[in-house]
Amino acid sequence: MNIFRTIKEYKDWRNSLTDEPTIGFVPTMGFLHKGHISLINESVSENTYTVASIFVNPTQFNNPEDLENYPRDEKRDLELLSAAGTTAVFIPSVKEMYPAPVTRTYTFPGIDDVMEGALRPGHFNGVAMVVSRLFEIVDPHVSYFGRKDFQQLMIIEELAKNEFPSIKIKGMPIVREEDGLAMSSRNARLTEEERETAPLIFEVLKRSAQLIQEFTPQEVCRHCERMLAGSGMIRPEYFIIADSQTLKPLSNKADAAHATAFVAAWLGKVRLIDNYELF
């Protein structure tokens, strides 16, 4: 497995490929789990080469404490990537990625001003900034993202459509722990008691799929927020049922052909997000 820490090193390798390969790309912020590896496995099965990146992107953290506390373990990450068959890993420094301040502002009307976009100002601008930069450097044919970050996936699909039309974006299913908790690098920061409580988030999401058969979306959301808060440990930030195509919150079930329930909640100092397709 090749490890590159500069753009020049990666580009030299990329330009040396003469067999008209397909390159699959999995961008990550490290501290990998089975969800990340499922993306690697998909890429390895579909492409000649698979490239992963490890870069904790400071521009998408609107909370400095969250950036400082984001878990890191490069040695373990490299072992996991190698075992999964990754061809190359790009691990740039912040200076390598952003040698000069990036002044461009990205906007995605209708999908970047709700849920995560509304609560984390500048977050999706930072996401678009780093993904755009990585796409320019890595030059992949396909890039893989998990559906846990559903809204982020929609942002990246829109970015690729507008600026990188030759890159196919492939969204992959959420990978969960045996008790239903969506896998996330942030789970490692949960205390033992918080970790025992965390699966309630998925239980409530599943319950919303039953409730939507009898109640309005607003009634379901209010009930689900009460269920989460009733744990005494989970502090729901939002529970929203929205059109899966537009992310517009639903007033009536009949307003959309497909709907998804979205949740963001705090457990102690850890913020978790998840989603569940309702219909």
Describe the structure.
InterPro entries: Cyt_trans-like, Pantoate_ligase, Pantoate_ligase_C, Rossmann-like_a/b/a_fold. It is an enzyme of class 6 (ligase). This protein starts with a strand and ends with a strand. Helices cover 39% and strands 20% of the residues. The strands form 2 sheets. It has a 6-stranded parallel sheet with strand order 1-4-3-2-5-6, sandwiched between helices. It has a 3-stranded antiparallel sheet with strand order 7-8-9, with helices on one face. The longest helix has 16 residues, at 123-138. The mean pLDDT is 96. The chain folds into 2 domains: 2-172, Rossmann fold; 185-274, 2-Layer Sandwich (Pantoate--beta-alanine Ligase, Chain: A,domain 2). Helix 10 runs antiparallel to helix 11. It has helices at 7-16, 34-46, 64-69, 74-83, 94-97, 116-119, 123-138, 150-163, 192-197, 200-211, 217-229; strands spanning 2-4, 23-28, 49-54, 88-90, 142-146, 168-172, 234-243, 259-267, 270-277. It is α/β, with parallel strands linked by helices. It is built from 11 helices and 9 strands.
What does the radius of gyration come to? 19 Å
Overall 3D form: globular
Instruction: Please tell me the overall pLDDT.
Output: 96
Report the β-strand fraction as a percent range.
15-25%
Query: CATH homologous superfamily name of the largest domain?
Result: HUPs
Helix vs. strand class: alpha/beta
Which fold name fills CATH's third level, the topology of the largest domain?
Answer: Rossmann fold
How many domain modules? 2
What is the terminal separation in angstroms? 42 Å
Number of helices: 11
Largest sheet: 6 strands, parallel
Number of strands: 9
Tell me the quaternary state: single chain
Determine and state the CATH class of the largest domain: Alpha Beta
Helix content: 25-40%
EC number: 6.3.2.1
Pathway: Cofactor biosynthesis; (R)-pantothenate biosynthesis; (R)-pantothenate from (R)-pantoate and beta-alanine: step 1/1
Organism: bioreactor metagenome
Protein name: pantoate--beta-alanine ligase (AMP-forming)
